[in-house]
Description:
Blueprint: E1 5-9, H1 18-24, H2 28-35, H3 47-55, H4 60-64, H5 71-80, H6 84-101, H7 105-119, H8 125-128, H9 139-142, H10 153-169, E2 175-179
Antiparallel strand pairs: 1-2
Protein name: DUF1877 domain-containing protein
Keywords: Coiled coil
Amino acid sequence: MGLNLHYWTDNDDLQETEEQHELHYLTRTFADFMFRKNVIMNEEEAELDQIGKITDIDISLIYQMLGYPQEIQIEHELELAQDEEAEQKILDNAEKIKIEIENNLDKVLSTINSLIEKLSKLENLNKLLLPTDYDTLNSEYYFSDFNIDKNNFGQDLRNFKRFLEFAKENGAKTVWFMFC
């Protein structure tokens, strides 16, 4: 059993066919990849941060997609709030984050396109990334053969791009990740 990562958009009517879902899905390894910043230790650098440096691309928008406040999360935090002031702070923070992410789809798509363009020219991304003490990704495999679809990082980015294009074509303007 593992954590799954799903896309979510501001278009509640967005529906994928089974075929489209196959073209858009992200591997569980990608979900692990997105959480690496919270897992690695000893001043090691998460792979996404390393990739940002290798490609000279600002990847902060991708991380930002993880922070979109889910209603269930807000409700839970409100239940734990000590007083009305704390409740208001929770609501204000959630609203601030939503505003920061609002209308991000074009920027995220541009970031993913840039990553694909630059990484497709590298033959050995897996060799360029510094190893970590706790490799939950099977990095040697996951970051190899970027241009070949084999449940690897390259395929995940191309699937991500296809979803963003699909969402944009269907009127979405904001996109974020939801974990299930």
